[in-house]
Amino acid sequence: MSINESASTHSMPGLPIRTITAYTGSATGNDAVYTEAVRRLAVVLAQRGIGVVYGGGKVGLMGILADSALHVGGTVHGVMPQSLVEGEIAHAGLTTLDVVGDMHQRKNRMAELGDAFVALPGGAGTLEELFETWTWQHLGLHSKPVALYNVNGFWDPLLDLLDHMVEEGFLRENLRHSLIVESEPELLLEALSTWQPLEPKWAS
Questions:
Q1: Cβ–Cβ under 8 Å, residues 166 and 172
Q2: Three-class HEC string of the chain
Q3: Cα angle value 100/105/106 (rounded, 5°)
Q4: pTM: predicted TM-score of the whole model, two decimal places
Q5: β-sheet bridge partners, residue 53
Q6: Domain annotation covers residue 45
Q7: Residue-by-residue pLDDT tens, the chain, 204 positions
Q8: Residue 113 belongs to a domain with what CATH number?
Q9: Which of 125, 181, 122 lies closest to 148 in space, CA to CA?
Q10: CA dihedral for 123, 43, 72, 98, sign (positive or negative)
Q11: Domain hosting residue 181, numbered range
Q12: How far apart are CA 66 and CA 8, in angstroms?
């Protein structure tokens, strides 16, 4: 199933969010606040019966997210390319692990499975996944909410850059504000559940 096909069946206005695709790092960062915030989010998702879709790793914040959700009975679905599984970084205790051929298949599969997308603190890979998914939303390739979990102001420099893009005429203001930004799990889930899709960027 393609991202276009999945857009018609997931997270249309008024439908509940059953799964969240999370993008985050294979490191834990230099401050314990990130680990604790990811644990809190994972527990809230599990308690509300919302499944987690993520990259399938056992290391860094990826592993914290999966372990914390599983510990309280949550459902965690990992997606990982065969090359990384062979590198022994796949999480062995997930509810489901999809092994795919490459990174492109990984991202498409994660997009199909999620009703919403949340970027947690992370590095270059997290940024790449966030911007691709958010751009797909702008182009009307899916109608699902995209959010930043802004732990400890982690995403503030990125938000400043996005505002600069608006000021300089490279990003439409309505598209800038289509990106949800929250620092608390409950507020994040509320914003995801009430989000309404915009008209695609190039709609006539």
A1: yes
A2: CCHHHHHCCCCCCCCCCCEEEEECCCCCCCCHHHHHHHHHHHHHHHHCCCEEEECCECCHHHHHHHHHHHHCCCCEEEEEEHHHHHCCCECCCCCEEEEECCHHHHHHHHHHHCCEEEECCCCHHHHHHHHHHHHHHHCCCCCCCEEEECHHHCCHHHHHHHHHHHHCCCCCHHHHCCCEEECCHHHHHHHHHHCCCCCCCCCC
A3: 70
A4: 0.90
A5: 21, 77
A6: yes
A7: 344 434 333 444 546 899 999 999 999 999 999 999 999 999 999 999 999 999 999 999 999 999 999 999 999 999 999 988 877 689 999 999 999 999 999 999 999 999 999 999 999 999 999 999 999 999 999 999 999 999 999 999 999 999 999 999 999 999 999 999 999 999 999 999 999 988 777 664
A8: 3.40.50.450
A9: 181
A10: negative
A11: 3-192
A12: 28
Whether the CB-CB separation of 63 and 88 falls below 8 Å is answered with no
Question: What's the token pair of residue 95?
Answer: 């509810």
Output the six-digit token pair for 58.
């056992």
Query: Is 197 a domain residue?
Result: no
CA distance 6 to 11: 9
Q: Is residue 203 part of a domain?
A: no
Does 139 reside within a domain? Answer: yes
How many Å apart are CA 188 and CA 181, to the nearest integer? 7
Sign (positive or negative) of CA dihedral 9, 119, 150, 202: negative
Q: Which residue has the tokens 């062979």?
A: 86
Q: What is the domain count for the chain?
A: 1
